[in-house]
Design a protein that fits this description.
The protein has about 100 residues and is mainly α. The chain is about 60% helix and about 0% strand. The protein folds into two domains: about 35 residues, no CATH class; about 50 residues, no CATH class.
Length: about 100
Amino acid sequence: MLGRAANTPQLKAALNDFIKSHRLGTLFGNTILRRYLQETKWVEDATSRKDLQRFSEMMNLFQKYGNQYDYPYLMLAAQAYQESRLNQRLRSRAGAVG
């Protein structure tokens, strides 16, 4: 089911390098901990029924364009979720849609 998303050794290596050099105890890691992880009220449940339903409805699009551009579809989904929680009705101040 994961298709190309499961076969990304270069991405895995890059993420592992980043994690090693930015972990807790480094300036970056400590800053992130203080800034974002002290208060977690803003964290949303990405596995809520509504979010999973939106993901299921859009998964074919993520797979289609992930395959077309040889890019892991779960990375597309993650970016879309980060930007709008997969809500197509949202508009940014600049006019970007969902």
